[in-house]
Design a protein that fits this description.
This protein is of the alpha/beta class and about 375 residues long. About 35% of the residues lie in helices and about 20% in strands. It has eleven helices and 14 strands. The strands form two sheets. An eight-stranded mixed sheet has the order 8-9-10-7-11-12-13-14, with helices on one face. It has a six-stranded parallel sheet with strand order 3-2-1-4-5-6, with helices on both faces. Helix 4 packs parallel to helix 5, helix 5 packs antiparallel against helix 9 and helix 6 crosses helix 7.
Length: about 375
């Protein structure tokens, strides 16, 4: 039995608590949060020991592993304390706001030989794993473009009471939402070598971004685009879709399905059907013992616990892989302030240029000189 502590009882912390409490190989023996009322109610009705200081939880309970679901700016500090006590660590995303901290902690976890995982749950969705299988088998041939989109209803009116509204706490669409889209791109095709044209727009928030748009450039010449908006209530919940174009065809993948278009002349040995084909995530997703919000939330924690009980140290969403996502986020933040190229307003329309010597093309060439 794996003895687990849980730090942070926000939305994700409560979700993890419900899942962990039902896992047959795990015992939740302590939780920590600064909300005293929530902790007292939890203790009253479940008997789980509660703490308001995470160090007391780490010091007083005989833990094998800890789940960290605090606001993002506390991740680095708490992860370090847990690793120094040789605990296996599951940390919510994004991993660390400071890339250097993340790299140091990934190295420390490796030296300690403990299981380490970050909560990028799309890596545990069956359809995205099928897409990765097809991409690794070169089903699309040479990839030349990828587009990832993530939309959902998180911030729909001006508000500023939570940590998600503060950039210093790790709030904002880029840190807290687009990171999922960046991570699934990293998982499917690798980390981009550069970014450009980053736009961070505010829709309702005062201090953080609500929309993210950027171009990604990969070392093999492939390009990519990201569009993320957490102020979009045309969708009931977060929806993430990845579209990839290759020399053999096109693939569209989201949580529900994998659509492929393979050119008849491509001769792919790993895709059964040429032209368009649609397969659904139920064909790929393994059953989980407990369902809450989606199979992937239970599957990612089950993977973490199985790595511990089986003595496996490889992980498909490790600290090391999460630092790649942190690096892309950092690059976009830095790129967002880059200079824009102004559109020349001096170019005239053909109707405006009639009667002038040289015509429209001359005015265009003149404006571009």
């Amino acid at each position: 039995m794996v003895n687990v502590g849980l730090i942070g009882l926000g939305k994700m912390g409560l979700s993890h608590l419900a899942i962990v409490n039902t896992h047959p190989a795990v015992k939740l023996i302590g939780v920590c949060d600064t909300a005293s009322y929530l902790c007292s109610i939890l203790n009253k009705y479940t008997g789980i020991e509660v703490y308001s200081n995470y160090r007391e939880l780490l010091d007083h309970k005989s833990l094998d592993a800890v789940i960290i679901a605090t606001p993002s700016r506390f991740h680095g500090e708490i992860v370090r304390e847990a690793l120094l006590r040789n605990l296996h660590v599951f940390c919510e995303k994004p991993f660390c706001l400071d890339v250097a901290d993340g790299l140091e902690l990934a190295e420390l976890a490796d030296r300690k030989g403990v299981v380490n995982q970050v909560g990028y749950h799309y890596r545990f969705v069956g359809s995205f794993n099928e897409a990765k299988r097809l991409l690794d088998a070169q089903a699309l041939g040479r990839l030349h473009h990828v587009r990832v989109e993530a939309y959902g209803p998180v911030v729909l009116r001006p508000k500023g009471a939570t940590w998600r509204a503060k950039g210093s706490e790790g709030g904002g669409c880029l840190y807290d939402y687009a990171c999922h889209a960046i991570d699934i791109v990293n998982y499917l095709v690798g980390m981009p070598a550069a970014v450009s044209g980053t736009v961070l727009n505010r829709v309702f928030s005062r201090d953080v971004d609500d929309e993210v748009y950027a171009t990604m450039h990969f070392s093999d010449g492939m390009t990519g685009m990201i569009a993320a908006n957490w102020s979009d209530d045309s969708l009931r919940r977060m929806s993430t879709q990845v579209t990839l174009w290759g020399t053999n065809g096109r693939m569209i993948v989201d949580r529900q399905e994998v659509k492929t278009y393979i050119r008849p002349a491509a001769g792919s040995a790993v895709v059964a059907k040429e032209g368009w084909d649609v397969r659904y995530t139920t064909d790929f997703q393994n059953d989980v013992w407990y369902y809450l919000r989606g199979e992937e939330y239970s599957a990612q924690l089950d993977h973490f616990f199985r790595c511990i009980t089986d003595g496996r140290r490889e992980n498909i969403s490790s600290f090391a892989s999460a630092t790649q996502t942190d690096r892309v986020v950092s690059a976009m933040l830095q790129n967002a302030g880059d200079a824009k190229r102004r559109v020349d307003a001096g170019i005239t329309m053909p109707s405006q240029s009639r009667g002038r010597s040289g015509g429209f093309m001359s005015s265009v060439k003149g404006a571009l000189r």
